[in-house]
Amino acid sequence: MLEVEGLEASYGPFLVLSGVTLTVRQGEIVALLGPNGSGKTTLIRCIAGLLRPRAGAIRWEGRALGDAPAHTVVERGVAVVPEGRRLFGSMSVEENLALGAFAPRARPGETARLERTYAIFPVLRERRRQLVRALSGGQQQMVAIGRALMADPRLLILDEPSLGLAPRVVESIFGVLGTINRAGVSILLVEQNVHAALGLAHRGYILESGRVATEGEGSALLRDPHVRRAYLGPLAR
Amino acid sequence: MTSLLQQLVLGLLIGGLYGLAAAGLALVFGVLKVLNVAHGQLIMLGGYGAFWLFALAGLDPFASLALVIPGALLLGVLLYLGLFGWVVRAHEETRVKNSLLIGFGLALALDALAVRLWTADERSITTRYAGSVIDLWGISVPLVRLASLVLAVALIGAVHLFLVRTRWGRAIRATAEDWEAALLTGIDVRRAYLLAFAIGTALAGAAGTLVSVGYSVSPSIGLEWTLKALVVVVLAGLGSMPGTFVGGLVLGLAEALAATIFGGPYREMVGLVLFFVVLVARPQGLFTR
Fold first, then answer.
1. Rounded to whole angstroms, what are the CA distances from A63 to A30, A57, A67?
2. Residue from B89, B167, B185 whose CB has the most chain A CBs within 10 Å, to mutate
3. Do B178 and A100 touch (CB under 8 A)?
4. What is the largest distance, in Å, between two alpha-carbon atoms of chain A?
5. What are φ and ψ of residue A160, in 5° steps?
6. What is the CA radius of gyration of chain B?
7. Where are the alpha helices (H) located in B119-142, listed in sequence order?
8. In chain B, which residue's Cα lies nearest the Cα of A73?
9. I need a surface site. Which of A66, A86, B16, B283 has the fewest CB within 10 A?
């Protein structure tokens, strides 16, 4: 479904991605892991059309992505939950969700999808008239995911959804991601929380200094001694 | 006492036009992050537009709004496509600087054009009802200016409803808040910019029309109106259209107070003093949370 091939990207003279190749297949949850500065967010920005890659290709359902203007990406069925959520804080929960269905493709069935989003996150229904910036971090993350779901995506990309959230909240959010995936949405999950991400994902890639260092099944990566030492600390066995 | 009240009423009436003038500037600045210092010149053009329609075609100035507003919308589209659309391609921090250069250039060009087309004389629209006054408990309220205030409120209300209730209005607000996030939700932010700029120009055109009926226009009023609008934007912040409008009323009242208490010359000073005080004490504006 999503194929990234030999992707290179740079900010000015600084090469951030030097030949990344990865795929997300239909129905999969793929985790993209790696330390700070390894290029995870840059890769997401390329897929979302916010950054033009220097070389390489991004294909979505067989057709090139990444040359088209950024606002058309969601129209093609790829929704991104950006790092730091990037919600419209001065608007209500419901307005944020409505904006998620802005793309023409997402407009039919908007009401039904709003109901489904409220069914997934019942607390958002209670708070639908509140300004988003008055919500807790966990609730804001729910709005961010809900906003992306309102676009009716076939691929959901999340950039560090667990950032700054309490472990219990992370657990419930990851539970929801599993539910969304079982409903047929493929997921590319960028995370620092290696344990939680690999516990959920079918497969994972580990990015180091702009290239894929390791890849494999989620559970296998979790057992990989190199991965354990590098990301779970020297005491992990 | 009556004379103070009389001054305050007149202040409120012109304050409505300050609010209308500032609303367009605030919309453009808030959404595009571009400061259009030629906003006052757009107001001037709106005023001359109505003046021409009155002088050449005998059209009532309030009725001419129905032509001036669409004309200004179109002018806004052209100015965006020809000039300001290039500025928004720049990084956000360089946008304001570049827009200042373009804005000053445009302002000078429009000033010169206005002298050419309409000479440097002051013009105003004198309708049959121009001198009509309503007497309220000893305070005289010029009918034309009262009608202008009512129209200004209606226009601000209409733009506010558009921004709050409609899909594209919401998209414009989203773009103002975080244009990258707006892109991710599928909003064509360039189109949101175009729309906001055109609406801002239309508000300027409407304000100009009302200025030409209740007051007067000349080629030099552009900078004055840009300054008034800028003071109001700093006063009120970029929170909402009604907030900006109330900021305009506040400036009108403050000017009237200053003129009555300290004398006429202080009218122009009070805005600048407010500008300074608000920037120091509450840089986010009075009505921004």
1. 20, 10, 11
2. B185
3. no
4. 52
5. 50, 60
6. 19
7. none
8. B186
9. B283
Name the maximum alpha-carbon separation found in chain B. 59
From A159's Cα to the closest Cα of chain B, the distance in A is 13
Record: contact A102-B187, CB cut-off 8 A: yes
Residue B287 has pLDDT above 90, yes or no: no
Which residues from A are below 8 Å from B195, CB to CB? Answer: none
The answer to whether A132 and A96 are in contact (CB under 8 A) is yes
Name the strand (E) or helix (H) holding B141: strand B139-142
Alpha helices in B80-220 (DSSP H): 85-87, 92-118, 143-165, 167-177, 179-184, 189-214
Phi, psi (degrees; rounded to nearest 5) at B49: -60, -50
Q: What is the ipTM of this complex?
A: 0.92
pTM of the model: 0.93
Q: pLDDT, tens digit, for every residue of A189-227? A: 999 888 889 889 999 999 988 999 889 888 888 888 777
**CB within 8 Å: B178 and A88:** yes
Asked if B184 and A102 come within 8 Å (Cβ–Cβ), the reply is no
